[in-house]
Amino acid sequence: MRRALISLGTNTARMLVVRDLPNGELEALEHDQTGTRLGEGLGDDGTFAPAAVERTLAAVRAFVARARELDATLSGIATSAMRRANDAPAFASRFCEIAGVPLEVIDGELEAASSFRGATYGAVIGDRRIAVLDIGGGSTECAIGTAAGVTDAISLELGSVRVAERFPALCGGEPGATARAAAVAARREIAAKLAPLAAFRPLAEVRCVAGTPLTVAAVHHGSHVDRVSGTLTVETLDATIDRLLDLALAERRELPGMIPQRADIIVAGALVLSESLIALGVREGRLERNDLLLGFLALRHGVRPMQRP
After folding, report:
1. Stated pTM of the model
2. Residues 278-301, buried b or exposed e (16+ Cβ, 10 A)?
3. Assigned domain for 190 exists
4. Total domains present in the chain
5. What is the C-alpha separation between 127 and 181, in angstroms, rounded?
6. Are the CB atoms for 27 and 38 separated by under 8 Å?
7. DSSP result, 236-247
């Protein structure tokens, strides 16, 4: 059986297609994503911008068409933006008309647990305490666990889009001194909101998922985002932030490794990531490509993969 999962985040719409293997595991066949900025200007409890709705539904139509080409069973989830929008039911209705399946709005706890399952899929963890960080556009999730499963999870209303909208000087319109002053103020506010993460110390390892860490690593290495791996240190994060703060938006978009649609919010996301690692008491995070989507499918279908190093 092939399964396709559409996930609608505050910044990015994505689809993962997997197939069930005879041994009970899931094999990823295809992954696609497009930046639609569904949560643009949403705030804490506003309404979706009409243009953001249409961009996102256009992406949904393309995903649905591809899932049907692959003869995949389809499902859909949504995260922070849909949790906050007061017109979420109307959007969900339009999604259902296009996809033929309901859009499930998952809470922060399930989002965190799914990211943990995805980032540790098939890994040998043992009794080590692992944290999985998911820096999204609208919220940040952190789940703690061992091979036995998640022991603690938290979802914080803090993400790259929301920080960028709170501190617009971070977005590349005012490079240099103004952007640096905004970064200092943003760090102070971010650190205060991330203070609860300190309760999870000590940790053996932190794994980082979603677009922010991969994009920062790609920019640092001047490589395509699909080719980066390994770890990302706080020092590398902060050096990349410093570099970006001196660049105008158009210059950021031209950097090797940059995803152009993320160029305006990447500093905000990187600040959240840097302060998250500091709050968790570590100096680096491991980059992981398996994330929320694979983890959600594994949890929903009771998949327990063979462990690998």
Report:
1. 0.94
2. bbbebebbbbbbbbbbbbbbbbee
3. yes
4. 2
5. 43
6. no
7. HHHHHHHHHHTS
